[in-house]
Design goal:
alpha/beta; seven-stranded mixed β-sheet; six-stranded parallel β-sheet; about 25% helix; about 25% strand; globular
Length: about 350
């Protein structure tokens, strides 16, 4: 197999973009790293944090992309025992940890104080090649294509882990707020986990789609009756997985929680939640945020998805179309995950 000395990447040269395709010299992996030939990379809304320089330490030009699926092309020193050239791997939001901070020393790597997110700590997957640390790698099952595996590194693992680490148990009523890029996966996972699944979204027209995803009930948040009342009529939710990036919509679900119910927030919105302590105290309700998941969590997500036939709904675009794919994602028009491919 011939090895090229250069690779293509889509970079934003300055804050706000646009993306341009550039040629770069192929990097060599260092100790504990591997070089991955990227087959597919999801375009996530969180990429805007890097493209717009909204986080500290973002350096331009920036190559975003933290939903990576590909094949190991080169091994760095110290990786040979665990991995082989040709292994199919995914790299998600969790792009490695420092192993030194207090959370890491306690084994809670996903909240590492120096978390290595692709596109922030190092060049991401809007490219033909990525160098990533070994602890970021998740094995992709043979039955899962690169296009289907890529979004599972962020959107998939966040919804899957948010549900399996929640207080819900099979048979419990679990509501998923929003059935977009995150929520359409959340509904599928919730139903496969054995929860009585409620999908909450805007408009009666989405009811049939929600049922196709596996929802047992559908609540139209624009239907007139408060969402909380609709949840109470079903017995109250043990868990609400809030995937919608809308603080007002998230707040509207709290009164629909059952006693000791749990609101798990994974949809990002800078606006504060309108929740009072009185809503939580007497009924013992819990509100918590949930980060994505480690490489092992991604691997678990991929295995569960393969077992239950769960797949993201994607639109694929060649790497050359990175700017168009990114803008389509930002406009909200994508159904539901944009994925860049290197064919």
């Amino acid at each position: 197999m011939s090895v090229s000395s250069s690779y293509r990447a889509a970079q934003a040269a300055a804050s706000g973009g646009p993306f341009e395709i550039v040629e770069r010299a192929v990097p060599r992996p260092g100790p504990g790293q591997v070089r991955v030939a990227v087959d597919a990379c999801g375009v996530c809304h969180s990429d805007a944090l890097f493209v717009n320089g909204a986080l500290p330490g973002v350096r331009f030009p920036v190559v975003p992309g933290h939903e990576i699926a590909g094949r190991i092309a080169e091994l760095g020193e110290g990786t040979q025992g665990a991995w082989q050239v040709g292994d199919r791997v995914a790299v998600g939001w969790f792009g490695g940890s420092c192993h030194r901070c207090t959370p890491c020393r306690r084994g809670d790597f996903v909240v590492c104080e120096n978390l290595k997110v692709p596109g922030w700590a190092y060049d991401g997957g809007y490219a033909e090649s990525v160098v990533a640390p070994m602890d970021a790698l998740a094995r992709i099952p043979d039955a899962l294509s690169a296009v289907d595996a890529a979004p599972m590194g962020c959107a998939g693992v966040t919804t899957f882990n948010g549900l399996r680490r929640s207080a819900a148990r099979p048979g419990d009523l679990v509501a998923v707020l929003g059935i977009g890029g995150l929520g359409h996966l959340g509904v599928q996972f919730a139903a496969a986990m054995g929860f009585e699944t409620v999908a909450i979204a805007r408009g009666a027209a989405k009811a049939d789609f929600a049922k196709e995803l596996g929802a047992h009930h559908y609540i139209d948040s624009t239907g007139g009756a408060p969402v909380a009342d609709a949840l109470k009529a079903l017995g109250g939710a043990r868990v609400v997985l809030a995937t919608a990036a809308n603080s007002a919509a998230i707040t509207a679900t709290v009164e629909g929680l059952a006693p000791r119910g749990e609101l798990v927030v994974i949809g990002a919105d800078p606006e504060p939640l309108g929740i009072s302590p009185n809503q939580l105290l007497m009924s013992g309700k819990v509100v918590r945020g949930h980060p994505s998941g480690t490489a092992q969590d991604v691997e678990d997500t991929l295995a569960f998805s393969t077992l239950h036939g769960i797949r993201p709904m994607t639109e694929t675009v060649p790497l050359d179309g990175a700017e168009a794919a990114y803008q389509r994602m930002m406009s909200g028009a994508a159904r539901f995950r944009m994925v860049l491919t290197n064919d």
